[in-house]
Automatic annotation (TrEMBL):
One Pfam entry name: NMT1
The keyword Calcium is annotated on this UniProt entry: no
Organism, scientific name: Acidiphilium acidophilum
Keyword Hydrolase assigned: no
Record keywords, A-Z: Signal
Domain of life: Bacteria
Cell compartment(s), UniProt: Periplasm
The protein's name: ABC transporter substrate-binding protein
InterPro entries on file: Solute-binding_3/MltF_N, SsuA/THI5
């Protein structure tokens, strides 16, 4: 009996050694993210899906805007960044930083745009001339503002722009030091609830020059860690699936994560067009490795770059935009 017990103990130890990887042997993965209001990312975060799905020591790190995350990406202290707008990504790849879009989370519709102070005489885009509008310089708001002003034939320089983070915009709004803001949820929704009038939303932008939240990775790191990238996408996709199949539970998780009411979370989520892993390989999102050059995401990179060059946010266009869109990982994750 002693020999049997000893053999069982040895077998158990061997199995444990083989099947359990010690924490010190796992790679470290840091995932940066922004707070863009209630979306499926929050479900993946709340349910610890990244930690459960990825064989790595996973750490999540918050950034209050895309430009704030770019130095961390450039210094290789982040492996992934989510909730990022397209303009800071375009600015980085135009300088040769090796980054690629691995997952397009969502397209903004009514969850971002221009909100103006009531009683300030701003009824059209043309009325923004000479007014003080808060933006996050180098973020999606620069591109949106430039696009809307161009449509109205108003020079970009005709508007007095104040560079602020989204939380700073809330303070500036309450102190009446700005006339308008171009921002995204949750601050967009907050300013609207404080009496702001919505002048434009991102639903007014075309899909091929639109406002997206994207997840990106260092292209060289992704190439050497393809399974971790695929597992990361699977964790994101699980959040999307849960949101679609259990909407009430998903909204409760989002509300708790964001510190908002379920009603507010429902409004914010309705302002997005959400994309799953399977959606990524359609022409309306990333496309496939063969069709990526004509996908909506690639076209948005190209059109965003042209706008940013025109307004002086970048000094040269990215050389090969399609090379910065990487649908192969989502294609694998979706099967």
């Amino acid at each position: 009996m002693r020999k049997t017990a000893l053999a069982a103990l040895i077998l158990s130890t061997v199995i444990t050694t083989v099947t359990t990887t010690p924490a010190w042997a796992k790679p470290s993965v840091v995932i940066g993210y922004e707070n863009n209001g209630a979306d499926p990312w929050m479900v993946s975060q709340a349910q610890h899906l990244f930690q459960k799905t990825m064989p790595a020591n996973v750490q999540l790190k918050f950034f209050d805007s895309g430009p704030a995350a770019m130095s961390a990406l450039a210094s290789n202290s982040l492996q992934f960044m989510c909730g990022l707008g397209v303009p800071p990504f375009v600015a980085a790849i135009s300088q040769g930083v090796p980054l690629g879009i691995i997952f397009n989370q969502e397209r903004y519709t009514s969850a971002a745009g221009i909100v103006v102070r009531p009683g300030g005489g701003i009824k059209t885009i043309a009325d923004l001339k000479g007014k003080k509008i808060a933006i996050v310089e180098g973020s999606q708001s620069s591109f949106e503002l430039a696009t809307f002003l161009a449509e109205a034939h108003i020079p970009f320089s005709a508007v007095h722009q104040l560079n602020m983070s989204p939380p700073e915009m809330r303070v500036a709004w309450t102190t009446k030091s700005i006339d308008a803001a171009i921002v995204w949820d949750p601050v967009f929704d907050a300013l609207h609830s404080m009496g702001g009038k919505i002048l434009k939303t991102d639903a007014d932008l075309p899909p091929d020059a639109s406002s997206y939240n994207i997840c990106i990775a260092d292209t060289q790191w992704a190439k050497t860690h393809p399974k971790l990238v695929t597992d990361f996408i699977r964790a994101l996709d699980q959040g999307v699936t849960f949101t679609r199949t259990h909407p009430h539970q998903a909204l409760a998780l989002m509300a708790k994560q964001a510190g908002i009411t379920i009603a507010t979370a429902k409004t914010e989520l309705a302002g997005y067009q959400i994309f799953s892993a399977k959606d990524q390989t359609t022409p309306h999102v990333l496309g496939t490795p063969k069709t990526v050059a004509t996908s909506a995401t690639t076209k948005t990179i190209e059109n965003t770059a042209k706008t940013l060059l025109k307004i002086g946010r970048i000094d040269k266009l990215p050389p090969h935009p399609a090379n910065a869109v990487l649908p192969q990982y989502a294609e694998t994750a979706a099967h």
